[in-house]
Design goal:
It is a single chain. This protein is 67% helix and 5% strand. The chain has 418 residues and is mainly alpha-helical. A hairpin with a 3-residue loop joins strand 1 (47-52) and strand 2 (56-63). Helix 12 (294-313) runs antiparallel to helix 13 (318-340). The longest helix has 32 residues, at 380-411.
Length: 418
């Protein structure tokens, strides 16, 4: 043992364990860096340098003229694990001023073994979230039934593929094809007036929203070496899903259909707000958020959707409604999570994912399928419509990132996240 604290090798191992666990749980890079700094102070690790990449974590420790360098290869995070994030946060807050690195390594190993994952609960949450997302994207009542069935089949397919340790992107492609083909077949026997929406929405849960939000945070904090790869993962998943969807749309391309359910403005405002809370709660379950995060996720979902609906119904553009909605829910999450010492990223992701521009994504894919089929004979208005809806899709995604990021940069610029 060194004269002060544990040996550098033991400290290095404990810190590498912590960093890899947080990364695998879908933590933002700033939380990983702040958590490592907090643990290093408790372990008396002295001077620490951290290089956090998307594929590897490198830590250098210096103390009493001695130096140790360690590296840990990082797996691709395919989803968030809210239970792990909260458990690690509570553990770091409970540490005394000095702690033995062997104890920390043992405690982290025990935390990593707590895998409570109910497939039945996850599938129920997936179906509810996807059906609500379909409602928000103008699906009619029959389409909601199609979406629910197709989403369930896609979710089970993804679980089966990942269970047999196939490639993550292969799971995305397989689930997309299952969702789209099953929805296309169901729309032949279920009389929906929005067949195109019911065709595409069932696989929307595959979009890694947490990667988009984390990527925006990383880039704006100048963590390019981790932010840009996260962004590439997000776009890679979108590209793979688009390939699977276009493969079906080239063979079967229904019209966009009616505008979904017709409700009075007052009823729609109330229903949107309530369903926004349910959607956030459902997604909180999907990202394995613990019970103490349920209420804040629901509140953030209600507030965000309420403000978005008010802005859009008042004549504002959709991207402005999304920006103000995500901005408001982020402010609420900061106030609540700071006092309860909960990771802010959980309610932000759970409540913000419902704003992903599914409807405009649908219109863009429909336009792309039309252009591919017609080739040079494609009418100019169709091409222009495809480009404009594609740009609007991108702009709404940017609004989500900035709506969640700006309050953090303003209100929590000096906060250490751990």
């Amino acid at each position: 043992m060194d004269s002060e604290g544990g040996s550098l090798d033991d400290i290095l191992k404990a810190e590498l364990d912590l960093g890899s666990m947080l990364f695998s749980a879908g933590s933002p890079g700033q939380r990983i860096l702040d958590s490592l700094t907090q643990l290093n102070e408790k372990l008396q690790g002295s001077r620490m340098h951290v290089l956090l990449g998307f594929e590897a974590l490198l830590i250098s420790l210096e103390r009493d003229g001695k130096q140790r360098v360690g590296m840990r290869q990082l797996p691709l995070p395919t989803s968030m694990n809210g239970r792990a994030l909260v458990g690690i946060s509570e553990y770091l807050h409970s540490l005394p001023s000095r702690v033995d690195p062997h104890r920390v390594a043992h405690d982290l190993e025990e935390l990593g073994q707590r895998k409570v994952h109910s497939i039945l609960l996850s599938m129920a949450a997936l179906v509810i979230f996807t059906a609500i997302f379909g409602y928000f994207n103008r699906a009619d009542a029959w389409a909601l039934l199609i979406i629910s069935i197709a989403a369930l089949l896609a979710g089970l397919t993804r679980e089966l593929v990942l269970k047999h340790e196939f490639n993550y992107y292969l799971g995305v492609l397989t689930a997309t094809l299952v969702a789209t083909i099953s929805a296309a077949l169901l729309s032949q026997v279920i009389p929906t007036g929005t067949p195109l929406v019911s065709l595409i929405i069932p696989c929307i849960f595959l979009i890694p929203g947490f990667q988009l939000i984390n990527a925006g945070w990383e880039i704006m904090r100048n963590h390019m070496h981790i932010g840009i790869p996260r962004l590439m993962v997000f776009f890679a998943v979108l590209a793979i899903m688009s390939v699977g969807l276009l493969a079906v749309l080239l063979l079967y391309s229904p019209e966009i259909g009616s505008a979904g359910l017709n409700l009075t403005p007052e009823l729609q405002l109330v229903l949107d707000a309530l369903l926004g809370g349910v959607a956030a709660f459902s997604f909180c379950i999907l990202i394995r958020g613990p019970r103490e995060t349920f209420l804040v996720c629901i509140l953030c979902g209600v507030v965000g959707r309420f403000i978005r609906t008010v802005a859009v119904e008042g004549g504002g553009p959709g991207y402005a409604g999304v920006f103000f909605g995500t901005f408001a829910l982020t402010v609420l999450a900061i106030f609540v999570c700071t006092r309860l010492k909960l990771p802010i990223v959980i309610p932000l992701v759970a409540a913000s994912v419902q704003f992903i521009p599914g409807y405009y994504y649908i219109l863009t894919l429909q336009g792309m399928a039309s252009v591919i089929r017609l080739g040079p004979a494609a009418p100019y208005p169709d091409v222009a419509s495809m480009i404009s809806t594609g740009l609007l899709t991108l702009f709404i995604a940017v609004a989500i990132v900035f709506g969640t990021l700006l309050p953090l940069l303003i209100m929590n610029r000096k906060t250490r996240f751990y």
